[in-house]
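HUMAN: Now follow token order:
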Amino acid sequence: MIISLESLNIPGHFISRYNGLFGAINPVPSLAHKRAATFIWTGDWYYGARGMLRDLYNPQWGFRHRNFRLEFTELPDHTTPMQPQLVADSTFELRRGQANWTNPQMVSFLSVNFPNRFIRHRDLQLWVEPAPWDQEPARSDATFIVRQPLAIPIVPPLT
């Protein structure tokens, strides 16, 4: 599934890889920014499904956490075995949005190998940190609105 993920509490800012190799939330004023904020979710689309957020244009690249910071790194494709730690660090579980459990457009991503930590933003950077349901702004920082892809895949011309 191709998606873009907007921050719940900082409207107009999307999960992005535009700031070098670290995950961040950024505005998307240009096509380059929109491309950097459009991802492939590799899992099924239901709560509890596990998957990875991979780059739309370079699917061998995706997010993983290292030292609890989200970074953009090369991930082997499905034909190449991945190291168990890399798999665990780059796999997340789709959850209802921590800030609004009733809105199906709001989601959170739970770390598989640290099951009390979610992808959340802090100081516009993405981290894997706790987001207790009863604490703000942590809940909102870990909730993202699913949007239509900001960019579309580049399809090679037919020959």
